[in-house]
Amino acid sequence: MSQSSYMNIGNEIFYLESTIPTYFGVQKGYLDIHTMRYRIFGAVWKLVNERKYILGYWFADNENDIHRALKDTGFTDIIESQQTEVKEVYQTIRIEQDKENWSKRRRLHFFFMVRKPWKDLRKGWYVLKSSTNYPMILTCIQKNGIPFG
């Protein structure tokens, strides 16, 4: 069995227990940011007043694992959705993840460039990677000369 990842977006219990129909969709070829591989994506949501409330989503290596995870979480009486809706749900999740990533970013302090090892480097372009795991941010820095002497 392949490993699947699950995320509950944290909506009100009301949406989980309400009589509002629950929609489910599954589709392959979506980027799982935790493994940085394209995998099968599945999600459940409710539609209330023309707005989607995402209740949870999964990534897995095969579709059976997503169906099993859906069953294990207790969602019943689901309505299969169209592929375009699955894509919209995925894009909504990715937009929120990107907002979170940018809200957690940090700027380098001005004196960063006058300390070792940077102060001894030659002129040129340098690329910094914020971490070895996703989410990571690549920053390009151009060093024009040695500041302050």
Number of strands: 7
What share of the residues lie within helices?
A: 10-25%
Rg, Cα atoms, Å: 22 Å
Strand share of the residues? Answer: 25-35%
The domain count comes to 2
Termini gap: 61 Å
What is the SS-derived class? alpha+beta
- Count of DSSP helices? 3
**What is the succession of H and E elements?**
EHEEEHEHEE
Shape: elongated
Describe the largest sheet: 5 strands, mixed
The averaged pLDDT comes out at 77
* Poorly predicted tracts of residues: 1-14
Strand order of the largest sheet: 1-4-3-2-5
Task: Note down, in words, how this protein is organized.
The chain has 149 residues and is an alpha+beta fold. The chain has two domains: 5-103, no CATH class; 110-143, no CATH class. 24% of the residues lie in helices and 34% in strands. It contains three helices and seven strands. The protein has helices spanning 13-17, 63-72, 83-103, and strands spanning 5-7, 22-32, 37-48, 51-60, 78-80, 124-129, 138-143. It has a five-stranded mixed sheet with strand order 1-4-3-2-5. Strand 3 (37-48) and strand 4 form a beta hairpin. It is elongated.
